[in-house]
């Protein structure tokens, strides 16, 4: 058996790094003008922990809003999911720690719904935890965690059974895409589903700009740490030499188009090596890290209709800052 040192050396060999999708995406993004990084790579074990910390921040409202929806509207949401009582597969994209969906899972189990829970996440750390913890906290649950890209795993989920599919895409993850990309994503989602399948999808709604901006610039400084961790992950996994002290987190929000964006700005002229590649930054040059789009209800319905779904219901928190919409595949 290989010892830990030999295994680590194998993982970080230059040829292995260069062949990874992570490396290819990082080099592509940092070689572009303007520079960008793919937000899906935020979520390694450190990123997962930082995001959990962020969700507990006073300013970060989306999690509490959606938790309120799921805790106060559990019966109504589950009634829609159960439908006529047939067996179904409950698929969650980007499951995280399943805190929100746990309300639904517990209710479904208590009411003897015939379902299998299929959480999908790009983080193998997340899936490993769910596979271990949920059968303990929710006795009797049938669970099959899937680690990988959403649509690849949806194809695997489709192969699990021919049961009706109920897909959950929560936390306003759809807002992490540019508008056209979000419509394309939903259209692709529809292509992976059958007529009558269901999508439960979360949207962060437009509200006071100060409230939104504060959520992405918390006073504890967790959001900057979360963004900067991606640079540290590049250092850890790809042999990079980013000095994170030479980058600053900068968030913006445009109330007209609803786009909240995060950047990392270089504080000086510098060069960064990632494996054999050298990336040059000039002072004040930025890396686009993430968009978190905010929506009106009309925009969410329009997105449903233009991607092959029919919107049939909306559930809101008490302040109407967030909605979880139910769409049916037409």
What letter string, H or E per element, gives the SSE order? HHHEHHHEHEHEHEHEHHEEEEEHEE
| Strand element count | 13
Given the C-alpha coordinates, what overall shape results?
globular
Quaternary structure state of the chains depicted:
single chain
N-to-C span: 53 Å
Content of β-strand: 15-25%
Q: Please give the largest β-sheet.
A: 7 strands, mixed
Low-confidence stretches: 1-12
Overall pLDDT level: 92
Q: What would you note in describing this structure?
A:
The chain has 330 residues and is of the alpha/beta class. It has helices spanning 4-11, 14-18, 21-31, 45-55, 61-72, 74-82, 101-110, 124-137, 150-160, 179-191, 209-215, 222-238, 297-306, and strands at 35-36, 88-93, 115-121, 146-147, 164-169, 198-204, 247-254, 259-266, 270-274, 277-281, 286-293, 309-316, 322-329. Strands 4-3-2-5-6-13-12 form a 7-stranded mixed β-sheet, sandwiched between helices. The termini are far apart. Mean pLDDT is 92; it is low at 1-12.
